[in-house]
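Troubleshooting: if your tokenizer reports a length mismatch, compare your output against this known-good record of 183 residues.
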Amino acid sequence: MPMFSTLLLGGLVISLAVLLAIAGLIFAQHRISLELRQVHNVPLGLIYGALYVTFGVITGFSAYLVLNKYTTSQATVANEASAVRALYYLAGQFPESQRDQIQELTTSYARAVIDEEWPLMQEGQQSPHAAALNQQITQSVDSFQPSTSAEQAVYSQALQRANELNQNRNIRLLYARMGLPPI
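Known-good structure output:
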């Protein structure tokens, strides 16, 4: 419903502006002589040229900003999915109990984001289930106690990926709340 009122208000403002412009044109043509108007054609042409260029630059920057926001949101989603995938495969090098737990959590998280959170994002909301799974993934990775240098390296990579997952999730949810402008 807010979208309809915004469109209605926008249409009303544009219609009013067009009517005022036409009324001003008719008024000027009846009140100002043709000779006086012809004298000012060249300076007005220069001003209009500058306005056209300014309008083109503003339109170009606006299109760039919208496309940049759209591209950034796509990259954020891809990075989040990559972090989930990397955590799943890194967990394969953990001891069996933690390996199974982290792999199950990452699989459940991916399904929860796709099945639950994506539909909720249209309303700027998030899935509590996906948020809880994200927390559990981080806690599971944090709770691992490496005993060898190889496990320490895997643990370090897993911590980095869990951090990337959290950052990208937060950015994605921020974009969902702000909304992407239609292209």
